[in-house]
Amino acid sequence: MAASPAPPQAPPKPTWDPRRPQPPFPWLRPTIRIRLTLLYGGMFLIAGILLLSIIYLLAANALNVGSELPFKIISGQVASDVCNFPARPTASELNSAMNDCVNEQRRHALDDLLSRSLLALLGLAVIAFAFGYAMAGRVLSPLGRITRTARAVAGSDLSRRIELDGPDDELKELADTFDDMLERLQRAFTAQQRFVGNASHELRTPLAINRTLLEVHLSDPQAPVELQQLGKTLLATNERSEQLVEGLLLLARSDNQIVERKPVDLAEVASQAIDQVHGEAEAKGVEIRGKREPAVVQGNGVLLERIALNLVQNAVRYNVPEGGWVEVFTEVEHGQAVLLVSNTGPVVPAYEIDNLFEPFRRLRTERTGSDKGVGLGLSIVRSVARAHGGHIVATPRDGGGLVMRVTLPV
Question: Which partner from 38, 65, 213, 290 sits 20 to 30 angstroms from 386, CA to CA?
Answer without folding.
Answer: 290
